Amino acid sequence: MKIKKIILIVIGCICLGCGCVGIVLPILPTVPFFLVTLFCFARSSQKLHDWFVSRKMYKKHLESFVQRKGMLMKTKLTIIISVTALMGVGFFMMSRVPVGRIILSIVWICHIIYFLFIVKTLKTEDALRTDKEAAGKSA
């Protein structure tokens, strides 16, 4: 069991690093890496799990997704715009690398499909009501 915990901690730390890089470089998907981090830390170390869920990066990028299974439209648009801008720069710079442009295009299309059609869009009032319910349960 100790080896399993060590492996999960290592995988969690690697995914945490990749998720943090994904915050700066939207080519890497932050949310899936943070979900794997959350899973690995929850299965291996209560201290690491508690530390991770108390961080601003978790609350900003993952908390609403984990608790409410969706994101506000504002959050989705922020992600889509930043991904599009960064990938647009990469696409422009790869004018002599058609394979790179194809790969970037496929990744961009997958991002758009994922955030527009797979991730549920929360209404602001739903998010506020859920936050109040969660605060009432923890009190």
TrEMBL record:
It comes from Candidatus Eubacterium avistercoris. GO terms for cellular component: plasma membrane. PROSITE patterns: PROKAR_LIPOPROTEIN. This is YbaN family protein. Keywords: Membrane, Transmembrane, Transmembrane helix. The chain crosses the membrane at residues 7-27, 75-93, 99-119. Signal peptide: none annotated. It holds the Pfam family DUF454. InterPro entries: DUF454.
